[in-house]
Design a protein that fits this description.
Elements: H1 2-25, H2 33-40, H3 44-50, H4 54-72, H5 82-109, H6 115-135, H7 137-140, H8 145-158, H9 161-169, H10 174-190
Helix pairs in contact: 1-2, 1-4, 2-3, 4-5, 4-6, 5-10, 6-8, 8-10, 9-10
Keywords: DNA-binding, Transcription, Transcription regulation
Protein name: TetR/AcrR family transcriptional regulator
InterPro entries: Homeodomain-like_sf, HTH-type_TetR-like_transc_reg, HTH_TetR
Length: about 200
């Protein structure tokens, strides 16, 4: 019986968090409990039965969105023509970064994110960098350790949310931002073709 209650409670918490994420995706930036409760189909009282306050709810919702990000990532080619690898990376990153933007903007407004949110965020950044290193291992492998690290830093920087948000907030459409990412990555990789003497 207790296990059933625990499972129902977990599902209700997730339902409430998902309601907040739906509002987030629609561009809502304030989350009054009444609005979240209405979207989740529960009472305001039930929201505060499951969450101490709205910041705890936002925290869970952001954590869920960051965990969902990992489910969006598919294997990308790590061998073959450079242009194909770059295009595949730009397509996937553009799609994911556009989708994650509302949650990232909300996260920036949270003064003290929980240790769990910080951990999930750091893991996402580390995994994104690892995947870039894997996709361009051929180019990075031609360079000495210092230059390879510099190139990887650049590739990592232009394929993460900061660069994406810069392009999008500067007026570029998602298609234009994706093209800018693709061109920038290609230009950075040219340096691997001309190792310094």
């Amino acid at each position: 019986m207790a296990d059933g209650r625990t499972e129902r409670g977990r599902r209700t918490r997730e339902k409430i968090a998902d309601a907040l994420l739906e509002l987030l995706d629609e561009g809502v930036v304030e989350f009054p409990a009444e609005r979240v409760a209405e979207r989740a189909g529960v009472s305001r009282r039930l929201v505060f039965h499951h969450f101490v306050d709205m910041s705890e709810l936002v925290d869970l919702a952001i954590t869920r969105r960051l965990e969902q990000l990992a489910e969006q990532v598919r294997p990308l080619p790590v061998t073959g023509p450079r242009g194909v690898r770059v295009a595949a990376l730009a397509e996937q990153r553009a799609r994911i970064l556009e989708w994650i933007t509302p949650a990232r903007l909300t996260l920036l407004r949270i003064e003290h994110p929980s240790p769990r949110v910080r951990q999930v965020t750091e893991e996402a950044f580390a995994e994104a960098r690892r995947r870039v290193a894997e996709i361009f291992a051929e180019e990075l492998g031609r360079l000495d350790a210092e230059r390879a690290a510099e190139l990887l830093d650049g590739l990592d920087a232009v394929t993460t949310w900061g660069a994406w948000h810069h392009w999008r907030s500067g007026g570029k459409s998602p298609q234009q931002a994706r093209a800018a990412m693709e061109a920038t990555v290609l230009n950075l990789l040219v340096s691997a073709d001309h190792p310094r003497a």
